[in-house]
Amino acid sequence: MDPEQSEKHGQPEALDQGIQVDDEKRAQPTNGSSCSSSTGSDDARNKTEAGAIDELENIAEVCEGEAEENDSPGVVSCVLSRITSRSTTVDPGPPPDGGWRAWSQCIAVHFIISNSWGFINSFGTWQSYYVTLLPERTAFEISMIGSLTVFLLFFIGTFTGRLTDAGYFRQCYVIGSIFQIGGIICTSFCTKYWQFILAQGLCIGIGNGFLFCPSLALVSTYFLKRRAIAIGISAAGGVTGGVIFPVMARQLLPKIGFPWTIRAIALVQLVCLAISNILAKPRIKPRIQGPIIETQAFRELEYTSYAVAAFLFFWGVYFAFYYLAAFSRDGLPDPVSFTESLNLLLVLNGVGMVGRLAPNYFADRVGAVNIFIPVCAIAALLVFCWMAVTTVPGLYAWSVFYGVFSAGVQSLFPAALSFLTSDLRKLGVRMGMVFTIVSFAVLTGPPIAGAIIDRTGSYRAAQAFSGSSLALGSVFLFVSKVVRMRKLGQGWTGKV
Predict the structure, then answer these.
(1) What are the pLDDT digits (tens) for 97-144?
(2) What is the DSSP code string of 35-100?
(3) Which of 52, 126, 151, 376 has the greatest CB tally within 10 Å of its CB?
(4) pTM of this prediction?
């Protein structure tokens, strides 16, 4: 390359060659080398240098063309940004799909989700308790405490997902743990509605947001063939916490009161988070450059349809978790006691272990989206069937079936999204974007249902709202499957 051309392409080429030549000089043997081996190594170095120079020339030509089109002189900065981008997105190789380190991530994320989603799934316990503690507040107002928690969990996912891609998983984890434990401890001192909003709604919600999305993105990078079952095992933490925390409330509330019950829960969560902090290890190299929002994703119809479907699913799926206990006490001809209403909530959460593992097991074999569609459709049908339940035994039976399929909706949601993402380095951003969309569904869904109950004095219209949301979401999910299937050139039986 002549001097004029070298000057035209800028300094990066010279700098790169200089650094490369210096490194090679340091690596050369000082004595005892044969003539033939020296010649062979020189040829290899010359080929390496020539390849690097050709690549830099190609980058410079592309950048020069872009500068001429945009009437911008920033050729050098363009070259440097492209070199930096390539160096910060090194492919670490295929996921291990097993082994201690990979499965230990499932254990870590299981504990994290037991603290976040497990506590959220237990909100029906607190909804029932706060109705008596704050009798002047309506069901709509009390449900806002739990809805704010879930809203922040998803909404903050946009930012924490990108921070995870950039290599800040550990910082997100520490911040989330502080807010999570601090919020629970502050809740133990609350006696007024606005205090619960700040402590349980705002503070715990921020903590969940810094923990949940990064942890799911983490476990997804360790698995490919077994990704769905790995996410299912991790998501089963919502069942673990959803059973443990209501049991603690049932046993401890009558004996030690609300403040110390909440502090006992804080201690359990502190131990779980400490174990997770030791086990969690990011695998993917940081992707330093990249947007918080990847607008290109919304140009993919399968992604956009999936985002709409996710919004509709989460608009309706948590209605039962918030209002089942209340329904058993004032929606049946023969109401049950407060303790027995918690038993129903335990059944609803406990059977979720099956719903989080079985669908994900089959999802690895036939495709997460292929399993997700019938699971969501059946969940919608079950909500409509709830309208016909008028007895306590019938409500227990309904809780078993809905607990299984609603858990399947929650666990397949992130698994299906990972199946629609080809580049795992973008998984955190894409997951965070959908989480933000979903956040507005969980913020408004339960309060809308509560407002319907307050206005009509009946649960029937609220049940119809929940079932319709799930049914319509199944339609959009089917659209996402069809688009992805055609893009991959697969038939109806293709793995999507």
Answers:
(1) 888 989 999 999 999 999 998 998 888 888 888 988 898 888 889 989
(2) HHHHHHHHHHHHHHHHHHHHHHHHHHHHHHHHHHHHT---HHHHHHHHHHHHHTS----S---SSH
(3) 376
(4) 0.72
Tell me the C-alpha distance between 415 and 363, whole Å: 9
Residue 458 structure tokens: 């009946």
Phi and psi at 475, nearest 5°, equal -65, -45
**Of 436, 444, 419, residue with least CA distance to 227:** 419
User: How far apart, in whole angstroms, are the C-alpha atoms of residue 329 and residue 327?
Assistant: 5
Task: Give the chain's length.
Answer: 496
**Domains, the chain:** 3-26+39-87 (no CATH), 100-488 (1.20.1250.20)
Residue type, 214: P
Cα-Cα-Cα-Cα dihedral sign, residues 101, 103, 107, 108: positive
488 vs 495: CA distance, rounded Å: 10
How many angstroms separate the CA atoms of 373 and 476, rounded? 9
Residue 154 is encoded by which pair of tokens?
A: 């998803």
Phi-psi region of 93 (alpha: psi -120 to 50; beta: other; left: phi over 0): left
